[in-house]
Design brief:
This protein has about 130 residues and is mainly α. The chain folds into two domains: about 50 residues, Periplasmic binding protein-like II (D-Maltodextrin-Binding Protein, domain 2); about 70 residues, no CATH class. It has four helices and no strands. It starts with a helix and ends in a 5-residue tail after the last helix.
């Protein structure tokens, strides 16, 4: 099974699944997963998969509205309680650079290019 930490940790704690590696570039800070090697450490080099999220608005949303949403998102992601909660789930808050709408767009486009090759090779599509 390949699952994000937020869903896998209870299964690992309940001994319903055994964890062999994490797909991130670095080991996870969660105490339960801190000793678990990355796939890179396990021999699968140049492999990294992480869960990410974004906040989106419909095309044509006025730039002032996008800026106001972005400002609110940045404020929320600086909240110490939110950061602590995210870290307790094995998540990390993205860098300020990724919070720029144009930079997030570039990131999403790079992820689409990265995974489209895999999807096409596998011949799998969501219909």
């Amino acid at each position: 099974m390949c699952e994000q930490a937020t869903n896998a940790v209870p299964q690992i704690e309940g001994r319903k699944v055994k964890v062999f590696a994490v797909t991130s570039k670095k080991r996870m800070a969660l105490p339960l997963l801190a000793g678990v090697p990355t796939l890179g450490e396990s021999g699968l080099t140049d492999f990294s998969v992480s869960v990410w999220h974004g906040l989106y608005a419909p095309r044509g949303t006025p730039p002032a509205v996008v800026a106001k949403l972005n400002q609110a998102l940045r404020a929320a992601l600086k909240d110490p309680d939110l950061i602590k909660r995210q870290e307790s789930l094995g998540l990390s808050v993205v860098s300020d650079n990724r919070l720029e709408p144009a930079n997030h767009r570039k990131f999403v486009e790079s992820e689409m290019a990265r995974w489209s090759t895999v999807i096409k090779a596998a011949g799998q599509y969501a219909d």
